Amino acid sequence: MSQVPQSFAGREPPRSWLSAWNRWATLAAVSEKHPRLQRTTRAVAVGSTVIGGGAPVVVQSMCATKTRDIDATVAQVHQLCAAGAGIVRIAVDNELEVEALAEIRRQCPQAVLSVDLQENYRLAARVAPLVDKIRYNPGHLHHLERQKSVREKVAWLVAVARDHNCALRIGVNCGSVAPEFLERYPGDGLEALVQSAVYHCDLMEELGFERFVVSLKDSDPRNVIAANERFAALRPEVPLHLGVTEAGMPPEGIIKTRIAFEQLLAKGIGETIRVSLTLPNSRKHEEVLAGKQILEDVANGRFLSVPEFGDGLNIISCPSCSRVENERFVELAEQVRELTRYAARHKITIAVMGCRVNGPGETDDADLGLWCGPTVVNLKRRSQKLGSFSYAEVLERLKIELDRLIAERAAAESSASV
Ligand code: SF4
Questions:
Q1: Which of 17, 103, 247, 325 could be cross-linked to 253 through a Cys-Cys bond (beta carbons 3.0 to 4.6 Å apart)?
Q2: Euclidean distance between CA atoms 5 and 153, whole angstroms
């Protein structure tokens, strides 16, 4: 058995951890062999913060308030910074939100701000003077200016970032991988994800631009580990932003995130982290506190026992952001969790997403998916649409679909065993 980490020398781990002792000890050994922060990546300056290059891991978070609600967003920037966020991200999708961002920046001059662009990458030119970093999603570049190549679009983004002293994040997600990479790696979504990120790194470097970080996210922590390990092996010099997307509500969301972060951080992989949790706005800073706790535990060799996910019911839900289409989203996610507890032993994934930007795509892989519109919730069974239901009706319909799915699987199992 591996040596007991120094912080636990002379005493036994808690009884509840004993079943995970071998794994815990293995991770501790990894940590001792490769003490945290020994991976050498480029240093990427983001305002007054540095990601990579041996700097402490930066904990970041994202506002879930409406960007156009300037008072609420400014308050949330302060809330997240006070909790220890080194970078705060804000979603911007249109000109009105750009105007709001200008006022948010005016009122938060010290905050290190990042902006999240999804389908409207052309807004980069308007937001770059206001922020320190821009995240774009390579899987969403095809929505606008279809006549232009990806290379031209990336060259334009790089020029904008250079002109305005901004860093960039290449942010790929399993739920929105660029179609050409899915075609190139049929049946291997993880490789498509990794190669898409590598391709964008290559483009930037050909343009002489190295001030970028990469994130490779998925809602399954095992995929997050695999994707980041593959990428880190291919491009060890590029700083990584770690995240388990749609991790869900605490405590499950924190546990899923821990599963991924403990494995990666112990190997020195990860220069900035975000814990994505479905939380009401008043508790959003708990994302930052959870991230700091994980970093502290890993740095001290404290790897916690974690249950395996994926063998029973798995509820994934987005952390929400300014794009969320109805304020009842967090309540809906909690109601889904309560309603479906009776199905805990069934290996079924239910996704609850806050908006139309990522909701339709990121529910495709779930057995049952719900994504919010302003007045209705759209229900799906994998990529099949089941209909739109009011917030009052959707839970009843979800239960019908869940019972149907369980019954179908039971019937398939019993006919297979005959
Ligand atoms: Fe924001 Fe929509 Fe993603 Fe939820 S699904 S985090 S509301 S963009």
A1: 247
A2: 49
